[in-house]
Amino acid sequence: MFKNLLIKARDARWMWDLFGPIYNRRIYNALFELYEHIAQAVEMDGSSQILDVGAGPGYATLLLAARHTTASLLGIDFSAMQVRAAERLRKQRGIHNCRFEQGNAMNLPFANNRFDGIVSIGSIKHWADPQQGMVEISRVLAPGCWAVISETDRDVAEEALRRFIQRFTAWYFWDPLLHWGLRHIIFGQSFSEQEIASLARAAGFREIRTEKLASCPYVIVKAQK
After folding, report:
1. Of 111, 112, 110, 92, which Cα lies nearest the Cα of 101?
2. How confident is the model at residue 3 (pLDDT cuts 50, 70, 90)?
3. In Å, what is the CA distance from 144 to each residue of 70, 108, 112, 189, 205?
4. pLDDT for 121-146, tens place per residue?
5. Most CB contacts within 10 A, which of 110, 135, 174, 200?
6. How far is CA 150 from the centre of its chain?
7. Do the Cβ atoms of 51 and 28 come closer than 8 Å?
8. Residues 6 or more apart from 225 whose CB is under 8 A from it?
9. What residue spans of 94-174 are helical by DSSP H?
10. How far apart, in whole angstroms, are the C-alpha atoms of residue 223 and residue 225?
């Protein structure tokens, strides 16, 4: 019962509106290598339109926008607080080729075949229906283009999880409690590499590649429509 309540809280909008700033302060240092890797994996040219689904504080979106200044980036998140945080960071960095909006992955407010690439990092485990979210990503992605989906690895080894905790920890986290939460609520209630690939395949993606980074316990799935 308690575990189920925590999972519901993990996925609730109010949780991110309330505690998102704490998460934002810690997550960049934990995931910077993942952001860099995905920024290199996204295929785009000068006029590409790229969507980030579940953009959170905008770290990956802004990284892509800064490196591809003639492309157009849009990040959506279901938390209004996270959208405001991403917009503040965008203005601080003086980046003008991207914007952030509130939106729901279950019903993306865009036309079919709108985007030339889509990224989503650490978001799908929070979706009410991950398969529906993957179908929506496929719908708004142009034919022949790629989506890069990354999520916490449910099959993470204990040693890799403990290394990750060392990046995420802070004085106000009690490490044993943080370890329990990550193991049982975040990673344990996420997806395996094969499961994310299966979601992409069922959504109609025709070529699917998977990989993992030794330095970060996230699954990366690159799928072509």
Report:
1. 110
2. confident
3. 21, 20, 13, 32, 9
4. 999 999 999 999 999 999 999 999 99
5. 200
6. 6
7. no
8. 138, 141, 142, 143, 144, 145, 146, 147, 204, 205, 206
9. 130-140, 158-168
10. 7
